[in-house]
Amino acid sequence: xxxxxxxxxxxxxxxxxxxxxxxxxxxxxxxxxxxxxxxxxxxxxxxxxxxxxxxxxxxxxxxxxxxxxxxxxxxxxxxxxxxxxxxxxxxxxxxxxxxxxxxxxxxxxxxxxxxxxxxxxxxxxxxxxxxxxxxxxxxxxxxxxxxxxxxxxxxxxxxxxxxxxxxxxxxxxxxxxxxxxxxxxxxxxxxxxxxxxxxxxxxxxxxxxxxxxxxxxxxxxxxxxxxxxxxxxxxxxxxxxxxxxxxxxxxxxxxxxxxxxxx
Length: 263
Description:
This is C2H2-type domain-containing protein. This protein is an alpha+beta fold. It is built from five helices and 13 strands. It folds into three domains: 1-35; 45-156 and 214-259, no CATH class; 171-210. Strands 4, 5, 6, 7, 8, 11, 12 and 13 form an eight-stranded antiparallel sheet that branches.
């Protein structure tokens, strides 16, 4: 596993955890390798059964890719799946295993994340769906720092969709009482205090920067077991794969893709 070294600190490129010593990162990598060892609760499946699981996952992901812009943003997919099926598909890409709950977690992010999942799911089009009028909806696996001059399809006026997790709002453009100038009445006229305005605006900007932090674009896939009981305390349970990802749209024009807003 590659890692970044920043100011004598060591960072895992997958999950972003930072360690003060290289030994800490090495232990983290060792835990990741151990997470990919098959547990006694799982067993080997034939390749045909694993392929059927891949196809089912691709189907449920594509069902979330819709043409209407109200469906862009953060999405969650839950699919019934055994631990053995999950392990058969994602073995080698499991990032965390939690012994107390028996849950697993995979994280896919970065420039090659879509390609990596294409190899895992054996389908290059697992996260893409094409529509008429040269439109395409897709799973957003990577995004560079946004250009404030470019429109972003993840920021739409529809209240049902989420904001772009990479876009930090500009507090200077918001209507907030902390940004209103200090006013005082003198001889029937309102007078502005420039120093007071600047101080209040600076405090407000600092507060906003502490609260609003850009979230990385990534695809998180977990396996977990849910257990419930009825009125007679009879237990029943099942395993599920939970996939969290971000949806965006493009318009295909003359062999290149152009991001589009709501029509």
